[in-house]
Structures are given as C-alpha cells and as structure tokens.
Amino acid sequence: MGVIISNIVAIYRKELQGYFASPLAYAIAGAFWLLSGYFLVVILLGPEGIIQQVAFRDLQGQQGAPLPAVDVPYEFLRIFLSVMGSLALFVLPILSMNLYAEERKRGTLELLATSPVTNWAVAVGKLLGVVTFFTTMVLPLLVYEAIAFSASNPPIQPAVPLLAHAGLILFAAAVLSLGMFISSLTDSSILAAFLTFFLIVILWVIEILAKTIGGPVGEALSYLSLLKHYNNLVQGVLDTSSLILFASYIVLGVFLTAQSIDALRFQRS
What we know:
Layout: H1 2-20, H2 23-45, H3 50-63, H4 72-96, H5 101-106, H6 109-113, H7 119-149, H8 159-183, H9 189-213, H10 215-223, H11 226-234, H12 240-268
Helix pairs in contact: 1-7, 2-4, 2-7, 4-7, 4-8, 4-9, 7-8, 7-12, 8-9, 8-11, 8-12, 9-10, 11-12
C-alpha cells in the first residue's frame, strides 16, 4: 500500500508541476478568472442585476402591496455558480485533453503502460493533479464572493457557499475523470477535448430528455443528469444521491482509464 501511495504522489506532483509550467494552463486560468469576474459584476451590479431587481421590488412594495423579501446573497450565489458551471463545460475538456493524448503522441504512453507503476495509480495521480489545478482556479472566486457577501445583512451562513463550491469541484472531478478516459483513447488533444465536451453536454442536458420521456426510464435518465445534482449542491441541498452520482462518475472514469491502458499494455506484450 505504501508503494502505491508513493507512486500516486509521484505522478500527482509531476502532473501538477506540468500544469504550473504550462503557458496554456495559465491562459486558461486567466480567461476563467476574467470571465468569472465579468459575470460576477453583471449578475450583482448590472442593469438587470440582482441589486437593481431588489431595488425595483422595494419601490413596487412602497407603492402597493409589500412583496416577499429576496435573499440576495443566496440568489447571487445560486446564479453565479450556475453560470460558473456552464463556463466549466468549456474549460474542463481543455484541461483534460492532454492527460493521456499528449503521451500517446510522444510515444511515452507505451513506456507508462509497461512500467511497474499500476495503471490505477497513474490514473488517480493524474486526476488528482488536474483537480488540484482546477481548485486553484476556483479559489479566487471565494475572494470575489467574500467581498460581495461582506455587505450582506444578515450575513450568509458559511456552510452554504462552502457546500456550493464543493459541488463545483465534485462536478469538475467527475468531468475530468471522464475526460481522462477519453484522452487515453486518442493521440489527438483536439479530438479528446471535443469528445469530452460532447459527452458532458449530453450528461448536462439529459434531464430535458428525461422529462420528455417520463416514467421509470425518464427517472433513471434524470438521475444521470449532472445539471440536476450540481444544482442540488449549489442550492445548499446536501443530497447523498448527488454525492454518490459524482463519486460514481469519478470512479468510472478512473476504472475505464485503467482498463484502456491495460488494453494497450496487452497489445504491446
């Protein structure tokens, strides 16, 4: 067990160092931060933003019957992280596309497949590396939100934004795990990114199809929806079924990746 953990840590450090040394990774992070800052300002302070809407409701309440109060911090967090989830649909396939595809292109995947390090250890180490990098991309969002929440009265409960961001990271880990498997199947990074994006969009909107079908089949399809379970966590609902679904996608991606590299090892032997 100690050898396996040390192998995972070695792969993890190698992957993480690769991301922090990659100009592409910095470009992706910079674009993500720029867009997230823009959406934060628009959602909170824009002409159709939450503050303007609340001010308009207050004005209507003064002129007529009082309207129900709006929990501004909660509404802002829900809308902002919903937008971040949609933005992540474009970012995550780019982060996962080179996990194995680049090694296939360089011819180093064969060396990795025949090395004494288990395929599971390699897959877990790679996944932990890319999830950690995405987590560092998410951390500045907490700073943005802390500045916005500092003006709220009464203050928002810390558990709500923490659970919502945990949901974003779990969603990212599930997408990156599936993207890692797709990356192991091809030596084309662009193709890997496209196929990952296509798969995730299907899992993102499958709930629409489930509502159309209805019945037991519709319920089963609805359970597979990333959007449904992500929204549960963003809204502060700690649903064990959502946690199980994300964990299942993560384990499935790692398992399929290990099997893919096992198949390559068998071919080379």
